[in-house]
Amino acid sequence: MKGLKTVFICSECEYVSPKWLGKCPKCNSWNSFVEDVTESETHGAQKARRSVAFHSDGGVSTKFSELSTPEYIRTLTGLSELDRVLGGGLVSGSVVLLSGEPGIGKSTLLLQISDTLCMHKTVLYVSGEESGGQIKLRAERLSINGSKLYLLTETNVEAILEEAKRISPDVIIVDSVQTMYSEHIASAPGSISNVKEVTLSFISKAKSEGISVFLVGHVNKEGSIAGPKVLEHMVDAVLNFEGDRRQSYRIIRATKNRYGSTNEIGVFEMTDRGLVEVPNPSEMLLADRPADTSGNCAVCTIEGTRPLIAEIQALVTPTAFPAPRRTSNGIDYNRVYLILAVLEKRLGLKFSSNDVYINVIGGMRIDEPASDLGIALALISSLTDRPIPDDLIAIGELGLSGECRGVACIGQRVREAARLGFTTALVPLHNISECEDIRDIRVLGAKNVYDIIKYLKPKKED
């Protein structure tokens, strides 16, 4: 066997270089090289890699018309918000990667669903970060006492699979994949080679025996999942656990899902008894909305099949610096720049001499253009100090010429606004005909950005 050799591997495309490079010559990614230790493969490693070929048919192809459609068996996790994101429940034989920042509540979430799953299935919870006593303390705080829940504190993937063979679990939870290592890989746990090998081992186990696997993934300082980018391609679903540790609300969002939609989100609240579902997040996001205040506007965004009403706040204030500040939280930075340019060009408003701050309340992230009209109204309201009526909601996209363009699902958005007590909806003129049958709310049309100024209240007198 040859000696160990240190190489540098690109975490995006796995390009191998004998020395560290600032920019990958293959995929042009910056600062993506990480150090790794490799050695020539042993016979055991080659055998292990061959064993993960769970999809192999012995090199014989099958005619496409002769393939049968499999029936995916789903199991409810006990948290309907998580089931919504998964597409209706946990699929047997699937591998789900759950990522999030430290302390966001990943382990708490998985421990809670283990309590429900072990009522009808055998669950093996593998921890590579905490001792059994630590997990037991958390379980007692969450009132978890699963009869078919097994705990294993181990980081060797071969030992984990051997134990799984002994107890034959239906669900395996691994916390976390970056702490696991394989005997066939010489590099340290968390390296690209180890993360890839460990993940392949669990995928092979899941596909060959129909076991559902949850993998917890750490994130790096850029917010992406630590390890090779191919890790996200290997698994069946990638869930991101978002939120601020200093706030109580958490959001689960699917960025990949082979068994469901990637547009759904699940909303939770972190309490001293664990994660609690928030079935109506719109009411939660508008709970502390200030009244008769400039720079505040409500918008409606669609997350999968669910309309969510969010609160956008804008603060425009004269700058004390040569270059004004632009800060955006929850809205794409470039989108804010685009809307500012449209307002300056079409309405002559001078944002160039002011600092501009945009924030979406509750840690929400809005990435669809239907919120453009609300952002523009909030910016104009803050600059002119003219409040927006509290019962008005703005829905629409802005073009570079200042026109208001139509958006999809306008009826669903307006009905959700009416349900939550809004009496006026400002929508693009193109969408007016789709809202004729909606009662309990007045629908107004805006043709361009010039039409929206008249809906602001008069400036408050000192």
Outline the fold blueprint.
Blueprint: E1 5-10, E2 16-17, E3 33-38, H1 43-51, E4 74-75, H2 80-86, E5 90-91, E6 95-100, H3 106-117, E7 123-127, H4 132-141, E8 149-153, H5 157-167, E9 171-175, H6 192-209, E10 212-217, H7 230-234, E11 237-242, E12 249-257, E13 265-271, E14 274-277, H8 281-285, E15 296-303, E16 306-318, E17 326-329, H9 333-347, E18 354-360, H10 372-384, E19 392-394, E20 397-398, E21 404-405, H11 410-419, E22 424-428, E23 442-446
Parallel strand pairs: 6-10, 6-11, 7-8, 7-9, 9-10, 17-18, 19-22, 22-23
Antiparallel strand pairs: 1-2, 1-3, 4-5, 11-12, 12-13, 13-14, 15-16, 16-18, 20-21
Helix pairs in contact: 9-10
Polypeptide structure, described:
The chain has 462 residues and is an alpha/beta fold. The protein has helices spanning 43-51, 80-86, 106-117, 132-141, 157-167, 192-209, 230-234, 281-285, 333-347, 372-384, 410-419; strands at 5-10, 16-17, 33-38, 74-75, 90-91, 95-100, 123-127, 149-153, 171-175, 212-217, 237-242, 249-257, 265-271, 274-277, 296-303, 306-318, 326-329, 354-360, 392-394, 397-398, 404-405, 424-428, 442-446. The chain has a 9-stranded mixed beta sheet. A hairpin with a 6-residue loop joins strand 11 and strand 12. It starts with a strand and ends in a 16-residue tail after the last strand. Residues 41-53 have low confidence and may be disordered.
